[in-house]
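Let's sit down with a protein and look at its sequence and fold side by side. Please make up or recall a protein chain and show it to me in full. Label the sequence line and the structure token line clearly, so we can match residues to local backbone shapes. Go ahead whenever you are ready, and we will take it from there.
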Amino acid sequence: MNSVLVASNRGPVSFTVDADGVLTMKRGGGGLVSGLSGVAKDVLWVCAALSDGDRGAVRQAPGGRLDHAGYDTGPLRMLDIPPATFHRAYNAVANSTLWFVNHLLYDIPTSPHFGTRFEREWESYRDYNGAFALALAEEAAHEARVMVQDYHLTLTPAMLRAERPDLRIAHFSHTPWAPPEYFSLLPDEVGREVLEGILGADHAGFLTERWARAFMDCCRHLLGAEVSAGAVTHDGRTTRIGVHSLGVDGDALWARACEPDVESHVAALREQTGGRRLIVRIDRTELSKNIVRGLMAYREFLAAHPEWHGRVVHLAFAYPSRHDLPEYREYTAAVQRCAKEIEDEYATEDWDPLILNVDDDYPRSLAAYRLADVLLVNPVRDGMNLVAKEGPVLSDRCALVLSREAGAAAELGEDALVVNPFDVGETARALHAALVMDEQERVRRALRLRAKATALPPERWLAAQLNAL
């Protein structure tokens, strides 16, 4: 039995299967995995099997415990949830509904619309959360501490509470939280179920004060809950509300960024860009990341400042995300169209103003951070955004252009160039200001950004929540 458990949709490893049926394990993706994988080695991690390779590995493991099957994963249990149930829970509810609500992404004249199809999808989301609750109940020691992660698992705390009232349960939201008037787009019963699911925890954590206040406002307005400073009381139970900013393990990140595969990418990027000044962005092709407006801002910058033609290159790494969803496929296509327009308008025989890459390559991303003169992070809304923190760790002269709607702006805004993510003109002007910034000022800001980015590394973030239980 385990005294500390973490539950999340995505786990610390993933598997692929080749034509001969051989399984290959690699590091999992996503910000949560990046944040936790280095500090949760002695913690049982419960996650879902996401791929055919994952499911193949699970089926060879006793009770889904991959560490018991001989894999070097640390304590890990993967859940083989039926594919149809997983698809409806993950794609239709978590990513197409809860993510859209909390990031304010809906095109209101046309969406959302909730009917019988959504009712079936919501039932799958319940089943998915129930599978996690059951697994955690089976694996947890008496009075164990359980940390449930993110919007995929909003119902799990209350379900687990019903199974194991002895446990101490935390839920953490890595996304923003919508204000009540927007959260109320959800069907009333669904909204109540989400809020009451999280309130099944003893402690509900958020990345910033802003998102914590929004959650408490929803509890007050939609549940009639009693809300005080740092706590919500509903149906006779009190859930403490905590704010736990997530930072970067600077030493570990820098050590990884100095390995040979990264060094080779540094050399290749230098040769490819000809030693020019570099504006860097590194994102998933996620609707909230605002990549298209970022490219439009770069285009406006080039139009307004011909003196920079031939002297600057924009490295835009936009890695595939959620291509099961048509909105995301179209968004990736829109990013590629915008990039081509910039190339067609400004490229010359000896200058590529923009290098867009949509193939995931972590070592290359680390190399780009190291070379960045400017880092562009302009989401329309983001829980935190670790890119904004990783960049200054790896470049001692990087100027940060940062959206005011990123959670990271609460900590980094004083030393960044903060922009309205919808104002393309303002973002273009910020790119120029970042490029022409006095060198001493650039270095001073970068040092302060690095200190803030590493002030609360994952180990301290995890410890603070465990201590809160």
Notes: Residues 83 and 373 are 44 Å apart (CA to CA). The mean pLDDT is 93.
